[in-house]
# Entry
Amino acid sequence: MSGFENHDHRSCIRDAVQAAKALCAERGLRFTPLRQRVLELVWQSHRPVGAYELLDIVKDERGRAAPPTVYRALEFLLENGLIHRIETLNAFVGCDHPAGPHTAQFLICTSCRRVAELSDDAIAKRVRTRAADAGFRSEHQTLEVTGTCEDCAEPS
Amino acid sequence: MSGFENHDHRSCIRDAVQAAKALCAERGLRFTPLRQRVLELVWQSHRPVGAYELLDIVKDERGRAAPPTVYRALEFLLENGLIHRIETLNAFVGCDHPAGPHTAQFLICTSCRRVAELSDDAIAKRVRTRAADAGFRSEHQTLEVTGTCEDCAEPS
DNA sequence: GAACGTAATGTTATAGTATAACAATAGTCA
DNA sequence: TGACTATTGTTATACTATAACATTACGTTC
# Structure
C-alpha cells in the first residue's frame, strides 16, 4: 500500500488500530481511548496532520484538551512506531507497517499533499556505509522526498 | 572538508564569504552587509545555528533587529544555496560547496552537535529511482542522519 | 476491596520557531 | 531628478512544542 493507490481507506484505519492493539498487548502497553483516537485521526487520510489540527478535533470531541494532551499521545505513538513524524512539514502520518523497527523513506506529493512510505533497506544501508566512510556511526535516518505523485502528474 | 576534521576554521568563513560574493556577482544579486553578516554567523562553527540565536547576535551588533531581519537573510542564503536548513533541528549550517545546485546529505553528531555534509549522487540517484518505481517524480530530497562522529566515538 | 504506587491525563503557563502586513529606506536606471 | 524596485525596519501575530505541577485512573498487593 503506497498511499497513492486507490484503496478502501476505512480498512487502513481499522488495520492500524488492530495492529496497534496487538502491538500494545504484546508489549504490555496501554492503548488508551485517547491514544486510539489520536491514531485514528492521524489515519483519517494519508496526508500528514499537524498536532494542533488534531488538538482542535480532540477538543471538539472531549470538550477539553490542551497541547500536551495530543503531544503526549503522539509521543507514545511515535515511540512505538505506530506513526511517523514528517520533519519537513512538522506533521504526522500513520506508519504503514508498524511491526518492527524500520528505516522509512517518505514521498511527499506537493500537489495533493499525500505521503507514501518506502522501506528500502538498500538505500538505508548505502547511507550507513557512506556515513561510515566518513567515520560516522549512524543511528537514525530521516529521508523525505518532495515531488509529484502519479495521480497528480500531467497525463502524458 | 567534512566538518569533523581538524582545520583552520577561519578559512572556512573567509572562503564561504568569497564564494558568496562571487556567486552573487555572477547572478547579479546584492550581497548586502546584513546578508554577509548572517552568512558569517552561520559559519561561526560547523554546528547548526538557530534563527533566534542569530537574531540575538544581530541585535547586539546593530542595536535593532526583529525576526524578519534574520529570516529574510536566511531565505536569501537558502535560495542561493549558500546555506542549508537542517530540518530535524530547525537550524542552519553553511553549505560546503555552494557552486551549483546539489543534493546533500547531512551527518549530525548528537554528541558534539557538529554537522558534516555529504554529496553522494549515487544515493540521491538511487532514491530518485526507487521513488520513480512508485510512480513518483522527485523534486527535492532531505536526508539527515544522526549518530556519532569519529571524534566523539569511544576510542576502541 | 482498601491502600498504595505508578501511569496517564488535566491544566496553566511559557518557550521556541516562523510569517503576514505595511512603512521606511536605499539602490538602480531612464 | 524622478520613478521604480529591492531591501530592511517595525509591529503584530500565527504556529509548534514543552515545562511543571495537579488530578485521575489503573493495577497490584495484602
About this structure: Residues 30, 32, 50-52, 67-68, 71, 90 of chain A lie near DNA strand D (CB under 10 Å from a C1'). The two ends of chain A are 24 Å apart (CA to CA).
